[in-house]
Q: What sequence folds into this?
């Protein structure tokens, strides 16, 4: 049922016109609400995005947070990433860098490339978790393999700052992590 609900939610949004001023109709928003209330994670994530941007609904970080959290708790990788960013910024909830890390890590383990890059950045910067260039390089490399183009510049910078044996270890860990389906990454 949830896969069908997600397909319907995607179908509802597919009919929106493209462009900066695209607005879903009231009927489309109502259909998404019905699906979200029945537990469809994709509809919850879409509604979270609509509330976040005030697209077709009144802008509300509080409602966005609720929708993203509900979808994230069901394992929806995009919602987990979105929820992580809301915790980082304190939008719709208290700013909480540890919860931001938690949800970013969950999303990264689901294969979300932008979350993987963000997780790499957390390790490289060392302001949320202890600085660890090897783990940061590992997640950034994984993000690159998963198509996140922004990771390439970070990899180049890291390679100028890291020793060859550390780069090798990070690459070895990235290979093991990807090979395990993101279960053996720490």
A:
């Amino acid at each position: 049922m949830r896969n069908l609900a997600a397909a319907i939610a995607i179908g509802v949004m597919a009919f929106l016109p493209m462009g900066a001023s695209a607005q879903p109709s009231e009927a489309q928003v109502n259909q998404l609400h019905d699906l979200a209330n029945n537990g469809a994670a994709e509809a919850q994530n879409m509604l979270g995005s609509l509330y976040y941007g005030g697209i077709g609904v009144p802008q509300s970080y509080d409602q966005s947070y609720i929708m993203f959290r509900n979808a994230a708790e069901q394992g929806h990788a995009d919602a987990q990433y979105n929820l992580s960013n809301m915790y980082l910024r304190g939008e719709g909830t208290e700013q909480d860098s540890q919860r931001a890390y938690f949800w970013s890590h969950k999303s990264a383990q689901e294969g979300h490339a932008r979350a993987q890059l963000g997780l790499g950045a957390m390790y490289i910067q060392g302001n949320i978790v202890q600085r660890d260039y090897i783990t940061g390089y590992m997640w950034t490399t994984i993000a690159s393999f998963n198509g996140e183009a922004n990771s390439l510049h970070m990899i180049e910078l890291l390679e100028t700052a890291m020793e060859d044996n550390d780069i090798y270890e990070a690459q070895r860990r990235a290979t093991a992590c990807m090979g395990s389906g993101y279960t053996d990454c720490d």
Summary: The chain has two domains: 1-95, 111-186.
